[in-house]
UniProtKB/TrEMBL annotation:
Keywords on record: Membrane, Transmembrane, Transmembrane helix
UniProt keyword annotation of Transferase present: no
GO biological process, one term: DNA transposition
Name listed for the protein in its UniProt record: Transposase
Keyword Transmembrane carried by entry: yes
Molecular function as annotated in GO: DNA binding; transposase activity
Domain Transposase IS110-like N-terminal: 7-145
Lineage: Bacteria, Pseudomonadati, Pseudomonadota, Acidithiobacillia, Acidithiobacillales
């Protein structure tokens, strides 16, 4: 017997379903209210439920999986080509139903509640860092209008702000000075909130042996290691280290016709947050070679631009991360792959 395949278009209140009866060939389209969705699938034989990997998709995937259904999440960009007519809920559900049956389709792994909880900490920290940077730049720009030139760097600039405000007491109104001081207090609160989130990530790291193994890699710190473990989960879902690097957008884009292939810059597809963390870590490795110099990096720097070397190091780090997690290994800086005998 063939399992029934359902195309489910998610929404906040009204969901759209599309499926085909394998026995009669009848096409079914049905709208289901949010509160009635699980009730609908409870009364159905276990089947395949396809959804776009959008907001709340992982929650519904976990709930439907508990009912015995096989859930497949698809990136929205892969569904779009199968929308036949105008974009409606019914057309989207039909496109999802069509997409999930492609033999070469790639699916998104369903995240657990623990993974999403850790990623929520990363998202909140990322937002706090952005807001803090905006506040510092705003204060820097406003004080510059009064002749105050703060030194570069967030910490150095913040240290100079109290002295700068004291020199402006006879030129600025009391209201403006009090507002500036309140902004400085808010920056201190941001620092405290960011430090608290990092403390919680360190506590979570103690129970994650994989995070400790990843942090042994040069350029991989607490944020990168915890974000990768929380995002990927099972690294064996990627067939190779190159596929994982492609998932992060660290491989070249390709264009060509007539058998001629041309490589361009990196694709920048996939998870932007992970790619940014790896790029920052790689830049630290490339810029801070002191005692243990890496001959591979030195040779690459002699013939390629600096940023190209950074991206190449980030790609290498991604492949190393895949090897450690997929093959359950410890990081060895002197590891050399075994030569493969050619018959």
């Amino acid at each position: 017997m063939q399992n029934t395949i359902y195309g489910l278009d998610l929404a906040k209140r009204v969901m759209q379903l599309h499926w085909v009866d394998w026995e009669t060939g009848e096409i079914h389209r049905k709208q289901v209210r949010r509160g009635k969705l699980l009730e609908f699938f409870v009364n159905r034989e276990p089947g395949i439920v396809a959804m776009e990997a959008c907001g709340s998709a992982h929650y519904w995937a976990r709930e439907l999986g508990k009912l015995g259904h096989e859930v497949r999440l698809i990136a929205a960009q892969f569904v779009r080509p199968f929308v036949k007519t105008n974009k409606t809920d019914a057309a989207d559900a039909a496109a999802i139903w069509e997409t999930v049956q492609r033999p070469d389709m790639r699916f998104v792994a369903v995240k657990s509640e623990e993974q999403q909880s850790v990623l929520a900490l990363h998202r909140m920290r990322e937002q706090l860092v952005k807001i803090r940077t905006m506040q510092v730049n705003e204060i820097r720009g406003l004080l510059y209008e009064f002749g105050v030139d703060l030194p570069q760097g967030r910490e150095k600039g913040l240290k100079e702000i109290p002295d700068a405000l004291s020199t402006l007491e006879d030129r600025l109104s009391a209201v403006a000075l009090e507002t500036f001081r309140r902004q400085i207090q808010r920056l201190a609160e941001f620092d405290k909130d960011i430090a608290d989130i990092e403390k919680r990530l360190r506590l979570w790291k103690k129970d994650q042996e994989a995070v400790a193994r990843l942090m042994a890699i040069p350029g991989v710190g607490l944020l990168t290691a915890t974000a990768i473990v929380a995002t990927v989960g099972n690294m064996k879902s990627f067939r190779s280290g190159r596929e994982f690097a492609s998932f992060l957008g660290l491989v070249p884009r390709q264009t060509g016709t007539g058998g001629k292939i041309r490589l361009l810059g990196i694709s920048k597809r996939g998870d932007t947050y992970l790619r940014t963390l790896l790029a920052h870590g790689a830049r630290a490795v490339v810029n801070c070679q002191t005692r243990d110099r890496n001959p591979w990096i030195d040779k690459l720097r002699c013939r390629r631009p600096h940023n190209v070397v950074v991206v190449a190091q980030a790609n290498k780090m991604a492949r190393t991360i895949w090897a450690l997690l997929a093959k359950n290994r410890q990081y060895d800086p002197n590891y050399k792959p075994m030569a493969v005998a050619v018959a």
